[in-house]
Give the backbone structure.
Amino acid sequence: MQRFGEIVQWSDWEVPWLSPLVPAPYPPPDLHFDAHQYDAEAARAEGDRWWQMYA
């Protein structure tokens, strides 16, 4: 993940390759997100602790 000003980019995927008998899978394309929306969603997810109720 990299931040370029107002854009967050996910790139350089590491795709698992389980068998030498199967061709290596293609990595997904780069993804781009608005940095403000990305930060807001990351903060929301960080504050969401619903899973701790059942731990």
In short: Residues 35-47 form the longest helix (13 residues). The two ends are 30 Å apart (CA to CA).
